Amino acid sequence: MTSPGSDRTEKQDHLSADGESLSAYMQRQAARVEAAFDRLFPAHWVMPDRLREAMRYSLDAGGKRMRPILVMAAAEAFGGDAEAALPVACAVELVHTYSLIHDDLPAMDNDDFRRGKPTNHRVFGEAMAILAGDGLLTHAFHMIADSGLPADRALAIVRELSEYAGPRGMVGGQAADIMGEQGVTGLAELEYIHLHKTSDLIVFSLRAGARVAGADEAGLAAVSKFGENIGLAFQIQDDVLDVIGQESKLGKATQSDIKGMKVTYPFFIGVERSIEKVRMLTEEGKKVLLSGHVPHPGRLLELADYLMRRDH
Ligand code: IPE
Ligand code: IPE
Ligand code: MG
Ligand code: MG
Ligand code: MG
Q: Chain-wide mean pLDDT for the chain?
């Protein structure tokens, strides 16, 4: 398997108003986040080498860096500075990476490949993989506390991260997903699972970027609605790619949902209608962004289109 980052955005290389293509923009923002991972912990912090290695292994494995890119693009959409949003962007990638490490564990989805490499527990063992996830999650909050943002904005972002990533958010969605293996009954329950296990962290990313830039309530509401739609579309696309995607592009095994007896959109309504649903949700999300409450929505609109068409 090759790294999924290698052909990141080749299909959508159109130029935006400032002349930078979407793929160049995404690569530039991803590189910033990756460079910041080299200064993840204060130099004087002592911790077991193996734990540090396990955390870095999954962080450095690549991935699209979609959530941090959304944080920075949302800050810019409200006239803010991507640099000011960088610590929060890194924090959300830490939370996302922890969620993947735990998601792949034998007790959860039991997957062997992630981001083109053996999963964390395959390399470091289950106990260290659990702890690496714990470490990444905990450190995300430290990064926001240390971000240099005005205290009221940092506090609001910390509060929302715990809400959107925690039991009312992503963890709740993951719990419902696991319970669903024993028989989800309908589309409404499946929508709950998707909105929480996946949309919530995407909504958080957009709101946090908007908050860094001082967005007002109407702006926050607009990006939330956008995030719910593209988040749901993102998970349906993930489920579609689990059926028809290529392992070499995805960097993870396909047919994992079938093996895990997951109930997914393709399971309920078929692949064709699922793809159509992804398209409709993306269009709906884009419409909300054009409501007038987001001053510079250009990149976010492009990112929504990119996500709809992605093959990895
Ligand atoms: C995978 O997320 C897990 C889901 C929520 C579907 P991504 O597709 O963003 O994974 P990476 O970060 O690119 O590896
Ligand atoms: C995972 O959903 C969502 C998370 C919060 C990690 P999946 O289980 O479908 O993600 P993949 O397909 O393993 O990346
Ligand atoms: Mg899962
Ligand atoms: Mg999984
Ligand atoms: Mg999946």
A: 93
Are the C-beta atoms of residues 153 and 220 closer than 8 Å to each other? no
Mean pLDDT of 254-276: 93
Cα–Cα distance between 37 and 42 in angstroms, integer?
Answer: 11
Q: Which tokens sit at 34? A: 């990756």
Strand partners, 117: 114
Please state, as a whole number, how many other Cβ atoms lie within 10 Å of the Cβ of residue 39. 9
Closest ligand 2 atom number to CA of residue 114: 14
Q: Within a domain: residue 131? A: yes
Q: Establish whether residue 193 lines the binding site of ligand 2, counting it when its CB lies within 6 angstroms of any ligand atom.
A: no
Give the Å distance between the CA of 165 and the centre of ligand 1: 15
Beta-bridge partners for 113: 118
Of 6, 58, 64, which is best to mutate to test ligand 1, by the most ligand atoms within 8 angstroms of its C-beta? 64
pLDDT in tens, 50-72: 999 999 999 999 999 999 999 99
Tell me if 13 is assigned to some domain.
Answer: no
Asked if 59 and 41 touch (Cβ cutoff 8 Å), the reply is no
- 46 Cα–ligand 1 center, Å: 30
pTM > 0.85? yes
CATH of the domain at 105: 1.10.600.10
Determine the residue of 232, 234, 303 to mutate for testing ligand 1's pocket, defined as the one with the most ligand atoms within 8 A of the Cβ atom.
Answer: 234
Distance CA 22, CA 282 (A): 17
pLDDT at 6: 40
Kindly give the distance from the C-alpha atom of residue 111 to the centroid of ligand 4, in angstroms, as a whole number: 7
How many secondary structure helices (H) and strands (E) does the chain include?
15, 2
Q: How many domains does the chain fold into?
A: 1
Percentage with pLDDT > 70 across the chain:
94
Instruction: Report the candidate in 214, 224, 180, 237 with the shortest Cα–Cα distance to residue 64.
Output: 237
Query: Residue 276 is part of which domain span?
Result: 19-309
Q: Kindly state the tokens that stand for 204.
A: 């958080």
Q: Is residue 12 part of a domain?
A: no
